[in-house]
Amino acid sequence: MIYGMILAGGNGSRMGNTHLPKQFLTLDDTPILIHTIEKFLLNQKLDAILILVPEKWLNYTGDIIKKYIGGMDKIKLVKGGNTRNETIMSGIAYIENTFGSTDEDIIVTHDSVRPFLTHRIIEDNINAALEFGACDTVIEAIDTIVESKNNETITDIPIREKMYQGQTPQSFNIKTLKNAYESLNEEERDILSDAAKICLLRGHTVKLVKGEVYNIKITTPYDLKVAEAIIKDSTYAERDPEEVATV
């Protein structure tokens, strides 16, 4: 089976003075999370869509989904963990307990505050995860990347042509990711926050999937302004929702 997994555990600390986590802030009068869920609902290959949220926001999330989307048949609300990886593992545990598991099951994990992903990106993630067992959505780095190990002086400037900026979705064969995560010791679990890197360090191939420049993550007030500009762009707004999803 193929599962969507939308990670909505952020508290929005970089968004400034707001009473709601960033995923619940409105974009074009609709919560950002709802925009993201709608993109997943357009993909018919997904057997279920899990929304991972902190326990105290479960009821609120259910309320806004019912208000803006209606039915919950394909959508499952799941309590997240304290970290990104713990949240993903919580989603995997829910899948195993609710649906069972096979060696072919995959998950498409995505940030709740990246509402501009496309149908093509989701499809490419599904295909790459089925073939390679793990994949990461990226775009080519436009700016030069500078490394500083002491946060004061440059220690390296990698060749830009080999650098990419990570986005989401990141998608995985469930058993591949779970086995890789369970092989980590406590120190590694504290350090490694990226699921694709966990797979890479355990010797698994991680396929690159082409992202889009506008597949932005909304984490600051500036990002929210950019997102409002994107969604109000006439060429975007005039399209049918299914056409937008297939860009």
TrEMBL record:
This protein's record includes keyword Nucleotidyltransferase: yes
Positions bearing the site annotation: Transition state stabilizer: R14, K22
Keywords associated with the record: Cell wall biogenesis/degradation, Nucleotidyltransferase, Teichoic acid biosynthesis, Transferase
First-level EC class: transferase
Any one GO molecular function term: nucleotidyltransferase activity
Domain of life: Bacteria
Binding site for CTP: L7, A8, G9, G10, G81, N82, T83, R84, N85, E86, T87, S112
EC number: 2.7.7.40
Reaction catalysis annotation: D-ribitol 5-phosphate + CTP + H(+) = CDP-L-ribitol + diphosphate
Purpose: Catalyzes the transfer of the cytidylyl group of CTP to D-ribitol 5-phosphate.
Family assignment from sequence similarity: Belongs to the IspD/TarI cytidylyltransferase family. TarI subfamily.
Name of protein: Ribitol-5-phosphate cytidylyltransferase
Organism: Alkalicoccobacillus plakortidis
Gene: tarI
